[in-house]
């Protein structure tokens, strides 16, 4: 496993992690009607934001701030319940920073503005570094190693980068770098992405992770705030300007990715669409997934609910409670039904003679009898009526539910209610 032990992380104890968690996530459709994208459930137990927060904690960072904006109640409640163990007397802090018009009468206008409006709070903690993180990606990474590179190379900004096949990088901001990792050009969504030195088939795409010296960042953000032509965004404005005017350095994710084995590929996912969200969840049902949730040396922290153990009941032909290649959370009751390659969050009940194949079932869902579900995401609290069949007639599914380009059906209670009333 890559990564340094948290007890020896020295630079990280001089850093604050600033997590940008205000995004709406419109491509997740109805999943983000009542919650921000970072608050969306993931992996049978977690929320998406838990990955960035856990990476910071496991890296040794003990000062964390989270900027929220869009429909933040669910997200704030989750953090209050699951991330309330920081102790100020140990120089630990966890601040939730809703958009509150601290500087102007505007809400956060961009990712850079979401930091600028809280610069007085950042300065008050007197940290040497600020690590800017996106709160809506799924990955494991040791930020201490990125901080070390930042200091060793005397960078003004260090940018976390994914190594991706060159022609797959056309939808990203792409870095052109020299042999010393210095960024010499930044191109937004290029048709012909620049290649990595010595690797003509690969390119470096921005992860939206940045390390700054605190005072330098505050000065840069103040100047950006005064620029009427700026959109006040790190990727669109701040980073391209620093590539031209300062020393910007790239940090390839492969150097600090936490992996289940040395030969495993670094795992990072933007779960921003129904299909990518569905696929990333099902990745976890593999025998040895590239994202290891069972690694006690790099745990994913979250709010742990008080639930009874999962329960599987009935053992007769045609009515046998069981699950194969699946993750089943506490409080679930699998009553005479069959589950295959699926994730069941807390307190899901599936009644007799039903099957779920390739399903992501969020908390507090009840599935009736004689139901067949395949390639589905079921939102929280949905009651699936007896006899419903989804995933066998795609044209019919598209008239009743939200069907993605990849054929995944998202089911919400509003959709079920419309079906009952039709």
Notes on the protein architecture:
With 422 residues, this protein is α/β, with parallel strands linked by helices. It has two domains: 11-285, Spore Coat Polysaccharide Biosynthesis Protein SpsA, Chain A (Alpha-Beta Complex), CATH 3.90.550; 311-420, 3 Solenoid (UDP N-Acetylglucosamine Acyltransferase, domain 1), CATH 2.160.10. Helix content is 22%, strand content 28%. The chain is built from ten helices and 29 strands. The strands form six sheets. Strands 1, 4, 5, 6, 8, 9, 10, 11 and 12 form a nine-stranded mixed β-sheet that branches. Strands 17, 18, 20, 21, 23, 25, 27, 28 and 29 form a nine-stranded mixed β-sheet that branches. The longest helix has 12 residues, at 214-225.
Describe the protein's topology:
Layout: E1 15-20, E2 41-42, E3 46-47, H1 49-59, E4 63-68, H2 73-82, E5 93-98, H3 111-116, H4 119-125, E6 129-134, E7 137-139, H5 143-152, E8 157-165, E9 173-177, E10 183-188, E11 202-213, H6 214-225, H7 234-245, E12 248-252, E13 268-270, H8 274-283, E14 311-313, E15 315-316, E16 319-320, E17 322-324, E18 327-328, E19 333-335, E20 338-340, E21 343-344, E22 349-350, E23 355-361, E24 366-367, E25 372-378, E26 383-384, E27 389-390, H9 394-400, E28 402-403, E29 409-411, H10 413-421
Parallel strand pairs: 1-4, 1-6, 4-5, 8-12, 14-19, 17-20, 18-21, 19-22, 20-23, 21-23, 22-24, 23-25, 24-26, 25-27, 25-29
Antiparallel strand pairs: 2-3, 6-11, 7-13, 8-11, 9-10, 9-11, 15-16, 28-29
List keywords for this structure.
422 residues, nine-stranded mixed sheet, 10 helices, 22% helix
